[in-house]
Write a structure and sequence with these properties.
This protein is an alpha/beta fold. It contains 9 helices and 17 strands. The longest helix has 32 residues, at 270-301.
Length: 391
């Protein structure tokens, strides 16, 4: 173990204590998808530290300082992205899964469903499908003929799967689970009566973060950071046969298609994973300083703002503008975040029309290039002649 790795940390996948630390963060917002009603509350938001550890035995990366007791996923938690571009992406996933598995009826179970939007769109895209979503942050509801999705506000347990599903999906959940193997094995157990049911997993791709230098994608909420190799390793160790792992959403995400099988231990290249994290960490400070310089330069000519105040925007503001002197604030189309403040830095979150108050030609830093065309079109429709910078 390297000297600055947490002394008690062990790899959540293989239990090795042979770890290499790389990325370090002090006093991050504990939950970036919880926003606050006033500045004082936002400035007092809970904080915690991150140390990215990469296992020298299996290559898995995780936050060695993560404390699950700090996390509270309740009704305040909101990571919805009510974007037309993102909803098209949801529908593309649904159509692909339906075609891949010949789905036209039966139950699709979503483990970690958030507010249930993906399941709603899945059932709209594939009529005849019924949805079952399980997530502690969702509002419980019963299915109706018009909206055939049942939502259960709870952590996942095998007992929730009372009807044999045609498909199990688990999207953007594994990165939040501090003990991923027991969690995956509970899904495996839930499918004992449906051994042929296919599974679909989606997680952020650590290799994309490292290759792009996306320092804003390391956050406390995400205790796990998967590559294609480590995702396949985790699924195999939990008892799933992995059919395919591929990149999606402009390379930002990994899609894994799997089936229930016997546990196995695939080969891994842990040394390469350790080396990539170390190379990234060596240059990260310069990347953050460069982003700060770009924000400072932009603010000399016009007021500037971020667009996208979920993980990326909150962490970018935290690392680049911790004093709140460079950015006028942030924009988000999630109405539940508007007129609220980001944790720790207390940047204001506004509706898109707020950009009109920034004067002529404001600079808009777009936190996700996948939404750039949509954002530009919205600004044109509002009469905002902005300068766009895709971070």
């Amino acid at each position: 173990m390297t000297p600055n790795a947490p002394p008690t940390a062990r790899c959540p996948l293989c239990a090795s204590d042979d770890l290499r630390s790389s990325v370090h963060r002090d006093a991050l917002p504990v939950m970036q998808n919880v926003v606050f009603a006033d500045r004082a509350e936002a400035l007092a938001a809970p904080r915690a530290d991150l140390t990215l550890c990469t296992c020298a035995r299996c290559g898995f990366s995780f936050n060695g300082r993560f404390d699950p007791a700090r996390m509270v996923y309740d009704a305040r938690y909101d990571n919805d992205v009510p974007s037309a571009a993102f909803e098209r992406y949801y529908r593309e996933i649904a159509a692909d899964l339906a075609a891949r598995h010949g789905l036209s009826r039966g139950v699709v179970c979503d483990v970690g469903c958030g507010k249930g939007r993906f399941l709603d769109l899945f059932c709209e895209t594939v009529p005849g499908i019924e949805g079952l979503g399980i997530d502690p942050s969702c509002a419980p509801r019963a299915a109706t003929p018009e909206r055939p999705v049942t939502l259960v506000s709870d952590v996942f347990r095998p007992a929730h799967v009372a009807v044999v599903p045609e498909l199990v999906v688990c999207r953007h959940t594994l990165e939040h689970i501090p003990a991923p193997l027991p969690f995956l094995r509970s899904i495996h157990e839930a499918l004992a009566g449906a051994p042929d049911a296919p599974l679909f997993f989606e997680v952020p791709d650590l290799d994309w973060i490292l290759d792009r230098g996306a320092f804003w994608d390391f956050c406390y909420e995400h205790c796990n950071y998967f590559t294609a190799q480590s995702l396949a390793y985790a699924l195999s160790a939990a008892g799933f046969a992995v059919d395919e792992v591929r990149h999606a959403f402009g390379g930002q995400y990994l899609h894994a298609h799997a089936r229930r099988a016997a546990p196995s231990t695939p080969s891994v290249d842990a040394a390469s994973a350790v080396a990539r994290a170390a190379r990234y960490a060596a240059d990260e400070r310069a990347r953050i300083d460069d982003a700060r310089a770009r924000c400072a330069a932009a603010s000399q000519h016009a007021r500037s703002a971020l667009w996208g105040m979920a993980t990326k925007g909150v962490l970018f503001a935290n690392l680049v503008d911790p004093e709140g002197t460079l950015l006028a604030g942030g924009v988000d189309i999630n109405v539940k975040k508007q007129s609220r403040f980001t944790p720790v830095t207390a940047h204001g979150i506004h509706e898109p029309a707020w950009l009109r108050t920034l004067g002529p030609a404001p600079t808009v830093f777009v936190m996700n290039p996948n939404y750039l065309d949509e954002i530009r079109a919205q600004c044109v429709a509002m009469g905002v002649d902005a300068q766009f910078v895709s971070v």
